[in-house]
Design a protein that fits this description.
With about 400 residues, the chain is α+β, with helices and mostly antiparallel strands. Strands 1, 2, 9, 10, 11, 12, 18 and 19 form an eight-stranded mixed sheet that branches. Strands 6-7-5-14-15-16-13-17 form an eight-stranded mixed sheet.
Length: about 400
């Protein structure tokens, strides 16, 4: 093993979390390597699209506290990158306030916001229709506007993280696929399709490919992969804009009946707005099965909802696409985050992050993963998210 192939920390996966790990490990003086199979800035495996929802509120208090801890880290990242990454266009949740969804529940989230002192404005259906242009909503619908929420500039974030990792001396290698890991008491041997590396610690941030590496070690994470439709629509009136919105509805026999939408991106010259259904149906067996094409029925379901309830938008799609969602089978879990200790032999030398809607946590996830690699722990409460956490602990 040559010195050039020996590192303190190797990060597998060069998406937003992997780059955040690479930046923060290198900034702490660690010899760090980030490997990505497809190449940096690719839009496969979940990092597709121009924006992600930024929100502070969560139904689960521990995740809520993690978003509050993440906010100042985003401000630090923006300062270092000298560019705005979070745009506070507002986060509007509305619908059936008691329905449990993969996004949470409105009524319980309002109770937790009250407990933690987060400002918001409660809204009834008349407020939602009058102020935000929705029509023909069921009369029992209600919700809230949290004004600090909004949209994250995905591509700007990736560029900022890549630049900071590079600035601190992190080695960034694209187009190199990790084939297997061999952990032992002193570290981990990492074999790729090009060479063999050695590291004291490894961080697995490779999303849907994580079981390809854990499986040969005798463990798998209970995750599911879905292709979800992305639809861009034209505004009928250029003076009309929207906050981020998410509608909570009772599921149908065919799907979860959940839809979301963004306003016009402040950083983009495009006048289009992006919407999507959040349908966790028809899971893929492997990420390589992804077609990058939306299910036509899902597109029709979304555009039909828009035609019924959002007259400010032309329901005829201007563009369609798909993104890969990697989610825990148990929605109570939200993420897998922690050491692989007790999961695989010598798992104390492997840090795992996988699954969930994690972009809003990117700076914090990098910090936590590096904490775990260097110290074996973190001051943040992630016990419920550990790969070995029991079902009772998750709840």
């Amino acid at each position: 093993m040559t010195d050039s192939n020996a590192f303190d920390i190797i990060v597998v996966g060069g998406g937003p979390v992997g780059l955040s790990c690479g930046w923060q490990a290198a900034a702490r003086g660690q010899r760090t390597l980030v490997l990505d199979r497809h190449g940096f800035f690719n839009e496969r495996n979940g990092t597709s699209g121009a924006e992600r929802h930024w929100r502070l509120q969560y139904t689960q208090e521990d995740l809520f506290r993690l978003t509050l801890a993440t906010e100042p880290l985003w401000r630090r990242l923006e300062s270092l990158a000298e560019r705005r990454l979070i745009h506070s266009i507002g986060s509007l949740w509305f619908g059936d306030v008691e329905v449990d969804t993969n996004e949470g529940q409105i009524a319980e989230t309002m109770r937790v916001m009250d407990k933690l002192g987060l400002r918001y404005e409660a809204l009834d259906v008349r407020d939602i229709e009058r102020r935000f242009g929705f029509t023909n909503l069921p009369q029992h619908y209600a919700g809230f506007l949290q004004p600090d929420g909004g949209a994250i500039d995905v591509r700007g974030t990736l560029a900022a993280l890549y630049g900071l990792a590079q600035h601190h001396g992190c080695v960034l290698r694209a187009g190199e696929r990790v084939i297997d890991l061999a952990p032992d008491a002193d570290g981990v041997t990492v074999r790729t399709d090009e060479r063999t590396y050695r590291a004291a610690k490894v961080v697995l941030a490779n999303g849907p490919g994580i079981n390809d590496l854990l499986g040969p070690l005798g463990a798998t994470l209970d995750i599911k992969l879905y292709e979800m439709a992305l639809v861009s629509l034209r505004r009928r009136d250029e003076n009309v804009d929207f906050p981020f919105w998410f509608v909570f509805q009772q599921p149908t026999e065919e799907d979860t009946n959940l839809f979301y939408g963004f306003g016009r991106n402040p950083w983009s010259p495009s006048e289009l707005v992006r919407l999507g259904p959040v349908f966790e149906v028809n899971p893929l067996d492997h990420a390589d099965q992804a077609t990058n094409r939306p299910d036509p029925r899902h597109v029709r379901r979304l555009t039909s909802w828009v035609a019924d309830h959002l007259p400010a938008l032309d329901p005829e799609p201007a563009h369609t696409g798909a993104c890969l969602a990697v989610l825990p089978s148990d929605l109570e879990r939200q993420f897998y985050l922690g050491l692989a200790e007790g999961l695989v032999p010598h798992g104390e030398n492997i840090v795992i992050y996988s699954a969930g809607w994690g972009f809003k946590f990117v700076p914090l996830l990098g910090e936590i993963c590096v904490d775990l690699a260097l110290n074996g722990g973190t001051p943040h409460d992630i016990a419920r998210l550990a790969p070995t956490a029991t079902l009772e602990a998750q709840q």
